């Protein structure tokens, strides 16, 4: 098998895992019409080349499956980068000059910050990496909320941050999510960020959720907010059509697919 064929096969396997959340060895055998030893080799090769996949008993799954395992910021930057950047660019196009915007932590929000070239923006950041990304832009005033920094993730949280964020009233909040579920709303893997995320929604006139499609149909341990609190949701074209329909009809969310 040449390099191109191997790459295409691994990409196809990855897409199947993303769509189904997990695949058993027998599923891979049936789909690719291969032997069990070959299927196990496919799994090993996929795990080496994709940091967002994990080994499960007799199969392979998403590292975010059930939303209770979180990888560090630097690693997340290399996962679904193309989708995240497209989502971020679209979100930036919805921001107007002279707006005030509060930005959540996370890699998609980080890419969003890189797309901000508007004049006279006021940005409140809950992520020190995002603050540093914007600090040299002369057209943007950057505010930080203060508080404890979560190592490995750069998000700011704790009681000081929760209290300080109450001092702001902004036009737009841009939020990320660890997991999204139609019934349970937005959930998060770690309790550290929850209070700030809740206050982030309260201080904004509108809330834009930016998230790639792999976050849907997952549940993390801690509830953040219900989907009814979201005004606009931006995601990529791999999102399930049934989820799209339910978001529009049941939750009355403006859904933008890039």
TrEMBL record:
Q: Tell me, what is one Gene Ontology molecular-function annotation carried by this entry?
A: DNA-binding transcription factor activity
Sequence ranges assigned to domain HTH deoR-type in this UniProt record? 9-62
Gene3D superfamilies, alphabetically?
A: 3.40.50.1360
Please indicate if the UniProt record lists Transcription regulation as a keyword. Answer: yes
Coiled coil ranges (UniProt) are none
What keywords is this UniProt entry annotated with? Transcription, Transcription regulation
Write down the InterPro entries for this protein, in alphabetical order: Carb_Metab_HTH_regulators, DeoR-like_C, DeoR_HTH, NagB/RpiA_transferase-like
Cited PANTHER family: HTH-TYPE TRANSCRIPTIONAL REGULATOR SRLR-RELATED (PTHR30363), SGC REGION TRANSCRIPTIONAL REGULATOR-RELATED (PTHR30363:SF24)
Q: What is this protein called?
A: DeoR/GlpR transcriptional regulator
Source organism (scientific name): Brachyspira aalborgi
């Amino acid at each position: 098998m040449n390099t191109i064929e191997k790459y295409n096969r691994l990409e196809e396997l990855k897409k199947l895992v993303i769509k189904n959340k997990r695949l058993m060895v027998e599923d891979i055998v049936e789909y690719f019409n291969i032997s069990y030893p070959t299927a196990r080799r496919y799994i090993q090769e996929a795990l080496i080349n994709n940091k967002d996949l994990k080994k499960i008993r007799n199969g392979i799954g998403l590292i975010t499956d059930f939303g209770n395992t979180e990888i560090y910021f630097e690693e997340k930057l290399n996962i679904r980068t193309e989708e995240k950047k497209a989502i971020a660019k679209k979100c930036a196009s919805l921001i107007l000059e002279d707006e005030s915007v509060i930005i959540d932590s996370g890699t998609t929000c980080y890419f969003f910050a890189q797309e901000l070239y508007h004049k006279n923006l006021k940005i409140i950041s809950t992520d020190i990496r995002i603050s540093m990304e914007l600090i040299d832009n002369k057209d943007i005033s950057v505010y930080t909320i203060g508080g404890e920094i979560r190592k490995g993730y750069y998000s700011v949280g704790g009681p000081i941050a929760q209290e300080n964020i109450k001092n702001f009233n902004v036009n737009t909040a841009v939020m990320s999510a660890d997991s999204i579920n139609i019934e349970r709303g937005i959930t998060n893997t770690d309790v550290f960020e929850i209070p700030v995320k809740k206050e982030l929604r309260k201080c904004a006139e509108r809330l834009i959720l930016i998230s790639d499609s792999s976050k849907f149909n997952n549940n993390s341990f801690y509830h953040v907010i219900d989907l009814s609190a979201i005004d606009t949701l931006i995601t990529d074209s791999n999102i399930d059509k049934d989820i799209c329909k339910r978001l529009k009809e049941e939750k009355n969310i403006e859904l933008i697919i890039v």
